[in-house]
């Protein structure tokens, strides 16, 4: 063990006292490099108490104070892109350039939060009745919690806390215990930017910490991003405890390729979106649906490109794809490839036995790229979210058949259509059952000022994350009706009738 990761509560590091620790592994070597403190109920309670204390003043802080701090934080984040990316690479395993992309997309939400002043202006109607004005305002909800997955240890927390704190809430982050360090770097930068103690807290932990956040009476809202079974559990439990909740789950994202598409561009996009970050992205394309007679040519083009991808440690600038998060996950991903032929798939590329040869990396969580063709919808490789570098290709005779196949999936996160036909693309936008649609764009992650979220089993709750939905989620509405009577109006008098506007 070279390093211990502790909690961040009330503006400082607080050592874990539960006696429970989780191992953090360098995926490229398989070595346990770090131990992370797993919070007890009492430690979560301490973080909630710190956040509640801080809310008493932060909830009433001026917009000028909040945005001054957020602009400073943005500058610090910008200056520390590489440092954060290095922490991501060391614990997640993705390649450095990909980690920088994650930081850049998180920074977009900080940009949105820096401009919160225009979003919180509210609405005013004057003279709705005689001498009566009505104002709608939005106020923070209080202490809010964010529970985040391993695959974007910097970006996903940044989908949440910049908006939560800009709108006047205080925040408790429970990051993934698999790659906890980037969250602490972010906490330090927020403190350096001048954020008051207790406004942003980090508790590390597992189910014990999560369950305490879900039941704690002083937590008003919970944002969750992770797998579908846990998202469903979080939504049910937090809702039953009276909390506002948004819970984003897993995915199986389809790319529909029509016969008129530019097949080279479609193959480039499929390979980038399926194998980037070793497939450990909730917006990864994991199923390509080839329509009409183009299937064989498209698969050939995908294969040629996939065979050239260079796999290696994330800190080697020549690597394009890194290892998977854990050895257990690597073995699970490989099992889908091993079972594919028996389930009726044609195994075009089998990367399950790949291992990186570099010295010291023998025990890394390596896996190569796999490509399965003619995948039946009954195959487990199609039905499950594999979350690894395995791309399934399915065949459909027509647009309608392809669309029906996509819409039958229980997931509805992202999807894409590749075509030169504007009419078909327009139909697809309107007819597909998914929250985010790309037209010749394989990973349609919305920019920060639009909202991110899926449909069906990919999101539980009625708010998408960040953008206007995020601002709504972290604020509650209040409507103020005001009359300033004028003596010239004469006496008001008693009237038991329901008030009407004149
Ligand atoms: P996960 O569901 O295992 O863990 C997510 C969080 O929940 C972690 O903080 C973890 O500690 C906690 N957790 C795990 N098990 C729990 C339990 N039984 N009770 C309470 N809390 C628990 O997800 P992961 O493996 O870290 O991340 C990968 C998953 O996240 C994939 O399914 C991926 O699609 C999904 N994801 C979705 C989005 C999206 O926007 N929809 C974005 C990123 C990742």
Automatic annotation (TrEMBL):
PROSITE patterns the record matches: ALDEHYDE_DEHYDR_CYS
Region: Disordered, residue numbers: 1-26
Biological processes, Gene Ontology terms: L-valine catabolic process; thymine catabolic process
The enzyme's E.C. designation: 1.2.1.27
Keywords: NAD, Oxidoreductase
Location of the Aldehyde dehydrogenase domain: 22-480
Pfam family for this entry, one: Aldedh
Entry-linked Gene3D superfamilies: Aldehyde Dehydrogenase, Chain A, domain 1 (3.40.605.10), Aldehyde Dehydrogenase, Chain A, domain 2 (3.40.309.10)
InterPro entries in the cross-refs: Ald_DH/histidinol_DH, Ald_DH_C, Ald_DH_CS_CYS, Ald_DH_N, Aldehyde_DH_dom, MeMal-semiAld_DH
This protein's name: methylmalonate-semialdehyde dehydrogenase (CoA acylating)
A GO molecular-function descriptor: methylmalonate-semialdehyde dehydrogenase (acylating, NAD) activity
